[in-house]
Amino acid sequence: MTSSTRRPGIPARAAACIVAAAMTGFAAHASGQTVAGANWHRGTTLGGFIGAASSQSVTDAAVGVTVGWELTPHLAIEGRGLWLDAGPGADAFTALLGARVPILPGRLIGPFVSGGVGVFRATSDGGSFDNFDLAVGTGANIALGGRLALRPEVTVLLVTTRADTRTIPVFGVHLAYHFDSHPVTPSRAPTAATRMR
């Protein structure tokens, strides 16, 4: 008699290690920088995502892409495609349209909340099915300098079916590229002239 429980595969372990290393290294690099909020302007972003997803006590790899439109300092509209590995002979994909709301815009490390709606498709040897899904999440945007930002994030997918609602936590990190420059400069101690202003 065989067990139906799968252990996390190598891709999921590798994704978790990459996420942990990236968050540690880039956060340390960013700690000596500040962002000038006055330089904010509308822009477009393109990002890649790597991480993992948990479902039914199993953790598998997850990858995705995101296109964003930053409309105001407090609002960005994002379209996201996310692929989830569900084991041998099975996978899933979700396409989401939603919003990301920075809580402290203009900061070097700025927390945010996000949400979206979309379609979830699961495929296996037995066929495929489509369902409506909701996404809610939170994370932090870390400015790396110039046009790059690191965005560790945790998102929960709520996939609705005829019988119930499945909850799929997804965690990982985005590397986002800003097509419009967002200046980041090293932090400096205030000068005498600055203190007199």
Q: Tell me the overall shape.
A: elongated
Helix and strand sequence: HEEEEEEEEEEH
Strand content: over 45%
* Sheet with the most strands, sense and barrel status: 8 strands, antiparallel, barrel
CATH architecture of the domain at 51-179: Beta Barrel
**Poorly predicted sequence stretches spanning 5 or more consecutive residues:** 1-36, 184-197
CATH topology of the domain at 51-179: Porin
| First-last Cα distance | 77 Å
The oligomeric state of the chains shown is: single chain
- The average pLDDT value, as a whole number, equals 77
Spatial strand order of the main sheet: 2-3-4-5-6-7-8-9
Which structural class best describes the helix and strand composition? mainly beta
Please give the CATH class of the domain at 51-179.
Mainly Beta
Tally the helices. Answer: 2
Describe the structure.
- With 197 residues, the protein is mainly β.
- The chain has a domain at 51-179: Porin (Beta Barrel), CATH 2.40.160.
- The chain contains 2 helices and 10 strands; from the N terminus they run αββββββββββα.
- The chain has helices spanning 10-30, 192-196, and strands at 33-35, 43-55, 58-72, 75-85, 91-102, 109-124, 127-145, 148-160, 165-178, 184-186.
- It has an 8-stranded antiparallel β-barrel. A two-stranded antiparallel ribbon has the order 1-10.
- The N and C termini lie far apart (77 Å).
